[in-house]
Every structure is written in C-alpha cells, then in structure tokens.
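Reopening: structure tokens for the MTE complex, inputs below.
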Amino acid sequence: MSRRGFEPADDRDLELQRDLARRSPLPFPETPPPGPFRRTFWASPLRGPWLSSVLSSALLPLFAVCALTGFLSHVAYESEFPANTIVGEPGGFSVYGLLDWPTEPAWLYALNQGLHIVTGLAAVPLLLAKLWSVIPQLWEWPPVRSAAHALERLNLLLLVASSIFLVASGVLNIQYYYVFGFNFVVGHYYAAWIFVASFAFHVATKLTKVRRSFRDQGVVRPLRDDRAHTEAEPTPSEEEYPSTPARPAEATVSRRGLLGAVGFASLGLALLGYFQTVDGPLRRFGLLAPRTQLLGEGPNDFQINQPFQSTGLRPDQVGPRWRLTLEGSRRVSLSREQLLALPQTTAELPIACVEGWSTTQTWTGVRLSELARLAGATGALSVEVDSVETGNPFAFTALRAAQIEDEQSLLALKVNGVDLSLDHGFPARVIVPALPGVHNTKWVGRMTFQLA
Ligand SMILES: Nc1nc2c(c(=O)[nH]1)N[C@H]1C(S)=C(S)[C@@H](COP(=O)(O)O)O[C@H]1N2
Ligand SMILES: [Mo]
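Re-run output (same inputs, fresh job):
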C-alpha cells in the first residue's frame, strides 16, 4: 500500500494549509480534502505571480478597449427614444441624451464595432491562459480566511463568471443573432457592468502584486529560459495563497513557449475578427461571421442581415401598391415613382452591424431632410421610422435631428446604380452615416416626424 500521502514532505506542504484553516473565522476542517484542494495537486512550475502578471498586463488594454467600445456601441445603438430602447435606464434617466452620437465620420461605428470584436476575440486565449495560471486559487483551502478574503473571492467569482459570459455571448452573437433564451443586448449590457465593477476592484487589489512580481522577476527576464531552465518561481513569503506549486514537476513547456502559443492564438482570432470588419477579398476569411456567406447578386452582392424570405412579408406589401407615408404637420403618401422623381442624392456609406461586419456601398435616394420638408416638418427634432415588416424589434428606428439633417442621410431607393434588391430593403430603406446597421431600417413604410 502506498504511503505517499503520509510522507513528511506532504505534511510540510499541508502544514501551510492547516495553519491557514486554523486561523479561519469559520470552522473548516484543518486538513484539506484530497485532490485539487491540496497544494501538492497543482504541479506545473509555470504557475506563479509572474505568469499571472504578464497575462493580466496583456489583458488589461484589450479589456479596456473592448469595454469602452462596448459602452459606446450601446450609446450609438440606443438613444433617448423609446423606439430604440432595448435596455433602458432605471427611473427613466437616460445617459444617451447627454452624449449625441455624431454623424461624422461615416465609418465611426464600423471602427468602434471592429475594435470591440477584435479586442474581444483577442482576449479569449489570454483569458483562458490566465484562468489556467490561477486555477489553484479557485480551489483554495480553507475557502474563506477572513471577511476581506471572502469579499475578494466573491469578486473573483463575479469577474470570472461575467467575463466568460460576455465572451461566450459575444462570440455567439457574431455567429447568429439572438440564439439565446434571453435578450442578448440586455444580458450583455448588464454583465458588462458587473464585469467593469469587479474588474476595477480586482485591478485595484492586485496592482501591488503585479508590480512586486515584475520588480522581483523582471518584466521579460523569465522569457529567456528555455524548457530545461524553466523552474518554479519562489513562493511569496506572505501568507497569501500561492499559485506557485508546492512541489513543482518538470516543465513540459517553457514560459515563452506557452506565451508564444497563447499570443499566436490571440493574434489569429484577432485576424479572423479583423477580416470580417473590412471590405475586400480578405472578407471571405472572416470565418467567424456566417453572414458574410449570405450574399446577394450583381450590384446587390453584399452581406444580408435579414433576408426578405425570413421576414414573413408578402410580395404585394412591397409591390406596386406600396406607399411611403410621411407624417409631420401634414400627411403625405408617396409611391416609389414619386420618390424617384424627387431630387436624388448619392452617398457612399457603410452598413456597420453590431456583429462586427461592415460593408460600404454606394446608395442613391431622397434626403431625409427633403422628406421632412415635404411633410411640413423642417427642423424636426426626431423621426420614427417603421418598416412594413412587423413583429421584429429591428423593424423600426428613431433618428435624431442631426441624423435627419445630415446631407448624406437617405431614404435609399437604389444601391450601386441599380434598384435595391428585396433582401436589401426594396422599395426603400434608411441609410444614415455613423449609426449602427440596426438603424438602417429596410422595407420602410412610414416616417413620423416629431416637431416638438
Ligand atoms: N425591417 C428590417 N430592417 C432591418 C433589419 C431587419 O431585421 N428588419 N435588420 C437591421 C440590421 S441589424 C442590419 S445590420 C441591417 C443590415 O442590412 P442589410 O441586410 O442590407 O445588409 O439592416 C437593418 N434593417
Ligand atoms: Mo445588425
């Protein structure tokens, strides 16, 4: 019978944990349960403060950009108008009234969302490596050592859970819109607040640890060791629970080998994200964006978010009897021919979807400001746009005065010199600069201008 578990060396390793357990305010058994709760279970010599610090330092800027662009996307996506509100703010307060999303430059949202997706994807391998590097601490024994320690662990739980949720729901959302049993925007948005709060707390409490580790080990010095020279970091002397192994095994990979692989994966995912955000021949390598595979024909050959077929619209709703209704200080009804007889404007504008893809096309149609004028609503504060499509939260939008007045804001009738295809919103669709694609309502049937 093996007596390994009772050898004096194990006893020494256990003594640290027993000592911590004795001092815990809660009555945990002194001896940790066997398995991952024991320090000796985790043997990789790579784990330690330096590895965790390097991974954290790489994650910090990615998380910062991803969070910032996420909240900016939220501002662009929502507005103070009920028609655009998915999440809403408690008590009717709206931060969106304070920050007007601009109409220039036209590619603003494409850039914002490209950064959001690219940084989010690049963070995935780093996040997994970081979780691996601190996993002994998820099995700490005793589980609670003090009130402060409990708080720190609770925060860690929120941080890990929210970041995994954000990444997983975000990636699924690039894949196919709304495959969840909950509203993606609402879930992603509130998880983001939990994430930001727990992340800030985490950074504040760990900053000195990172500094100390870089001071002791050097920022890049451990990268010089090949596998044969890869040894465990010295265990910090304080009584904090260490991620360094109690009894390190031989390294199977060097630290630079591990970080190289993680960096490679991170860069690869970032590129996959980047390929879908830019137009051009690289687009087809944007393998994470299935919608780039759903294209039209001829000049209408570009991504389709929601094909006509899947809307439940009947062809006669968008046929010769289709009319655009304008409501302002008067009501006007226009056929497509009448719209084509109005002054036409051509603008090169992107559709930039929250999913990260964007595509720039040449649109021709009637300025929104011209339609406001026809409705006797020059200087309107906002306009509500309704599609003839029903039962879809993306079938309407509300636009602000700045978006109505921009010279490039159009009710497009044509794209790249030909009629819009049914999939791209025939007979008429909204196209406005700098806004998320979701506000570019297709199959428009009614526009209601608000004068006051
Ligand atoms: N009526 C209607 N308009 C809509 C949508 C929709 O589902 N229904 N999807 C929106 C979204 S989310 C985007 S990204 C763009 C995509 O336009 P496209 O399909 O022409 O590329 O259309 C927007 N307009
Ligand atoms: Mo979209």
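The pocket of MTE (ligand 1) is lined by residues 303-306, 351, 353, 387, 389, 392, 394-395, 424-425, 437-438, 440-443 (CB under 6 Å). The beta strands are 324-327, 331-334, 345-352, 358-367, 382-387, 396-400, 410-415, 418-419, 429-431, 444-450. Marking as resolved unless the reporter disagrees.
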